[in-house]
Design a protein that fits this description.
The complex is a heterodimer of chains A (about 290) and B (about 350). By secondary structure, chain A is mainly alpha-helical. Chain A contains eleven helices and two strands, in the order ααααββααααααα. In chain A, a hairpin with a 2-residue loop joins β1 and β2. In chain B, strands 1-4 form a two-stranded antiparallel sheet. Chain B has a two-stranded antiparallel sheet with strand order 2-3. The radius of gyration of chain B is 22 Å and the shape is globular. Classes of the chains: A mainly alpha (about 290), B mainly alpha (about 350).
Chain lengths: ~290, ~350
């Protein structure tokens, strides 16, 4: 029972991790908590639904198109909304993304209705034996995707010019600018990456839950909690936080009842913040006077 | 020297005049609100809708004390709304207390929890504070859902409202709300203009600088939390008694918390009039577009972003700009005018 809960917790956690990583990547380059991250995924899921169901495209082609679409959406949000207020205080940036959230929510409801839709690709529940328990094939595929994307991100941040530039902007945007790094382009790239990750989360999670405007609300919250758990600046921290939350909430759901799932994540984060305000892997940034 | 004095008295007089104008405007608004139910074309249901707007404004005022003046972003004030509501509901149900007692008890209970939360989150700010307060709202919602005394989704039905022994209906409730918001607005006005308010704003502008100027961070942060929670708790009491019913269905909904924050930001978080405009906005948009919920979402988002792009200090600040410019010109005239007279 215990091992089983842990394994399926890791499976859900790996999808939270992709959202958490997107939250971290955007936050550390722009000081923005992107509340629209979940809705990027939701739009991605809807686009994939249309590509597969109405246009009859192949699953992988649809996934690719949804990714491209969401990257565009991220870039659009950066250009239209976030760039003009890039120098504002934290609250302004935060509430601006809330505005984007409202708009995307409304647009999705307008076009596709409020009722939930089934995703045309079914989730494969065939159980497969993994160390210590059973895991459905669908979860296993999702985990494989998450690991592959994680590896791609690792490569990107470690070896590509853009990835290194992105980390430079994180460390010190002013010095990065002086070193000739096109900070504005990097910020654009950051939002594009948020869209990229969002599309995968949306399309991968759609068969497990359903497709509707509010489908991602819970995932967004968990992703945000996981990102804060890891300290908001650390990608490995966010991943660890997401897996931890996935496992803990699954255990809480299994032993206490499903209504305690979300609150467990919050109790964890509140306890952590009370004792370690900078998060688990956070660095205490020197605050300026 | 005498010259200097005349300029001083002139500008002082002008400032006093501005002050009187402000009080007059506030007084006229209050009287208009008092007389609102006898205006032609006003129907019975409007009184309860107006009470709803008022309680949203009060809740947003609570948020503005913490987020606007002290700089601590909260996405969890729905939790204080729930604490106020349930405190008064339980007291009314089991002890049949007066609404007045309920309002004070609900506010104080929220203030106490706010004080504790302020202590727990003493070192948080920004994104960390936001997620912490959101977690608090979730926690309160789960408690309301699962602890038996709060009766979860079934909810608690309350007897008709009585204040000072008098049974009141929608109209009476409107007046109770109106006097409550009047007192709270005066309270906030008093705080903002006092040393306490200046300490809050100093902490907002720079915690380090404020601390090195001798402002006790622990004291003022927990004080801001308590005051803010008290005000939103009072709004919660009104929210319970406006429908004589509390249920976890309502209070476990974290969208209250988000709405209060939006109201504060749209109206203007550090402007006295801000929560008024924001509160009206947040209540009336879904009200007008009840059948067009998706459009209401889009409108809310567009207005929010437009405000942030064009008037980051809020709509109230935007509306006040021409008046401020006019007054500044008058003040300048008073200064330069007197020096011109004195010269020849």
């Amino acid at each position: 029972m215990f091992g089983q809960q842990v394994i399926s917790g890791l499976a859900t956690g790996s999808l939270y991790a992709l959202t958490a990583v997107a939250v971290v990547v955007v936050f550390r380059n722009t000081r923005t908590i992107n509340l629209a991250q979940g809705d990027f995924s939701m739009i991605g899921a809807f686009m994939a639904l249309i590509f597969i169901k109405d246009l009859g495209l192949n699953y992988y082609v649809s996934l690719g198109l949804a990714v491209v679409f969401c990257i565009g959406l991220g870039i659009l949000v950066e250009r239209l909304v976030m760039r003009p207020i890039a120098d504002s205080d934290w609250l302004t940036l935060f509430t601006a993304t809330l505005g984007v959230y409202y708009i995307l929510h409304g647009v999705a409801g307008w076009f596709w209705g409020r009722d939930t839709k089934a995703f045309p690709v079914t989730f494969d529940p065939t159980p497969i034996k993994v160390i210590g328990g059973l895991l459905s094939q669908g979860h296993l595929i999702n985990m494989a995707w998450a690991v592959a994307i994680g590896a791609a991100l690792y490569y990107f941040f470690k070896y590509t010019k853009q990835g290194i530039a992105m980390r430079a902007v994180t460390d010190d945007p002013e010095t990065a600018e002086l070193m000739g790094i096109p900070v504005r382009f990097i910020v654009l790239l950051t939002w594009g990456m948020a869209g990229f990750l969002a599309a995968f989360v949306g399309v991968l999670i759609a068969p497990i839950i359903y497709v509707a405007p509010e489908m991602m609300d819970e995932v967004l919250i968990k992703g945000y909690v996981a990102a804060v758990f890891g300290g908001l600046y650390s990608i490995p921290g966010a991943i660890v936080g997401a897996l931890l939350i996935g496992v803990t909430e699954n255990l809480a759901g299994g032993y206490l009842g499903s209504e305690f799932k979300t609150v467990t994540a919050f109790i964890m984060i509140v306890m952590l913040l009370a004792f370690r305000p900078q998060g688990l892997f956070g660095i205490q940034h020197r605050r300026e006077v | 020297m005498a010259e200097q004095n005349t300029i001083q008295t002139r500008t002082d007089k002008l400032k006093q005049k501005f002050g009187r104008q402000n009080w007059l405007a506030a007084g006229v608004l209050f009287l208009a609100a008092l007389a609102f139910p006898i205006f032609p074309g006003v129907e019975g249901w409007m009184a309860s809708q107006a009470s709803l707007i008022i309680l949203y404004i009060i809740a947003a005022q609570g948020v503005s004390v913490l987020t606007g003046y002290t700089g601590l972003v909260t996405v969890g004030h729905g939790g204080f709304l729930a604490i106020g509501a349930y405190t008064s509901a339980l007291l009314t149900k089991y002890f049949a207390v007066d609404l007045l007692v309920g309002i004070i008890a609900g506010g104080l209970m929220a203030a106490f929890i706010g004080f504790l939360l302020g202590l727990i989150f003493l070192r948080l700010s920004g994104a960390f504070m936001a997620i912490g307060t959101l977690g608090f709202a979730f926690f309160i919602g789960t408690v309301a859902n699962n602890v038996p005394i709060f009766q979860g989704r079934e909810g608690i039905s309350l007897p008709p409202n009585r204040i000072l022994g008098l049974e009141i209906e929608d109209l009476g409730f409107y007046y109770v709300s109106l006097f409550t918001i009047g007192l709270i607005t005066l309270f906030i006005y008093g705080i903002v203009r006092s040393g306490v308010g200046r300490a809050f704003m100093a902490l907002r502008d720079s915690e380090r600088a404020a601390e090195s100027a001798g402002i006790n961070r622990v004291f003022y942060r927990t004080l801001a939390f308590s005051i803010s929670a008290f005000i939103t708790g009072v709004a919660g009491v009104l929210n319970a008694h406006i429908v004589n019913y509390v249920s976890a269905e309502v209070y476990a909904d974290i969208w209250y918390s988000v709405d209060f924050l939006v109201a504060t930001v749209v109206g203007g978080s550090a402007v006295l009039m801000g929560p008024f405009i924001g509160g009206i906005f947040v209540v009336m948009v879904p009200f007008f577009f009840e059948t067009l919920a998706d459009f209401a979402y889009i409108l809310k988002g567009v207005v929010l972003i437009a405000v942030l792009l064009m008037a980051p200090a809020g709509i109230a600040d935007l509306l006040a700009r021409p008046f401020r410019a006019l007054r500044r010109r008058q003040l300048e005239q008073a200064e330069t005018g007197s020096t011109n007279e004195a010269k020849p």
